[in-house]
Amino acid sequence: MSTPTTPGIRRQRIRRRVKVIVATFLVLLLLAGAAVWKFGPRYGVYLVPPSPAAYADAALGIMDGGYYTTGESWRTARAQAVADTRDAKSYAETIPALRRAVVVAGGHHSKVMDSGKGLDEAMPQRPLPTLRSAGGITTVVVPEQAVSDKAFKQTYADTLANGIASSRTATTCGWIVDLRHNHGGDMGPMLAGLSALLPDGNLVGFKDRSGTVVWETLEGGTVSQGGQVSMAVADAAKLSQPIAVLQGPDNGSSGEATVLAFRGLGHARSFGAPTAGYSSANQVRSLYDGTQILITTAVDVDRTGKTWNGGPVPPEQSADVDTAHKTAATWLNTQCHR
């Protein structure tokens, strides 16, 4: 009886190894596919178009990460949303139920955007910061920054930082930072642009439902969150002159967080009226058809450790919003050392 030759044995071993490798690959592929099928929709990844009920389930999965989803109110609202969308015939039919649910999960700062309408469309204007110096006081108008374009964000931050640098000589008394009409957006360009007026270290924090606080920090001209750089401008010497911050009811979201970045500074004071009451942090997630969900996952914390719980931020000195600039200038003139 003949026995396999050495080359024959080697070929058999190679075939067995190939079969094991192929089988392992197929198992891993199946496991990966199952994972994508189950969890992918929560992150905008789909193997096939979801049914309306599955579309709603993916939306509710995103909402599960909301700040207010630890109590009975969310469990009840979620179950109701599932019941209301179970027999939906289209994605559009699920939206009313999802809009009711998102407010429970994330509070009034959360929403389901209109289909095909993202943040750029919701806040279409692209205003840049402006600066004006008079009588030794420079007024820095900081508008909303809700544009996703990275180049524009950098332009916004550089315009603000360069304007402050150019105004140093004219600013013999102090600074007015006008946030009264800042509705929010990306706070990175705002804080980086204002970096010469802010000390290095923690600026404003965001506390999630577990109590963990992630800080927006500043080092030179670089703003970071959780160790990741948000925006950077050319480093400039810090300014120690007094600062008046203007705020009001049109001042919301990251605009409110920018107000809070000046809280706890001995040489800064805020003037005006309570802010809009969106002192919290949102995540933006997309559904299969491009519809975006804004879900609140954390609330603002100032450098003193005070938690604002998503509500309005009162000024340190009340003033009529329209005349707050004059009130702030009067205060600055009592504080500055020309």
From TrEMBL:
Sequence ranges assigned to domain Tail specific protease in this UniProt record: 116-324
Superkingdom field: Bacteria
GO MF: serine-type peptidase activity
InterPro entries with a match to the protein in the record: ClpP/crotonase-like_dom_sf, Tail-specific_protease
GO biological process: proteolysis
Name this polypeptide is given: Peptidase family S41
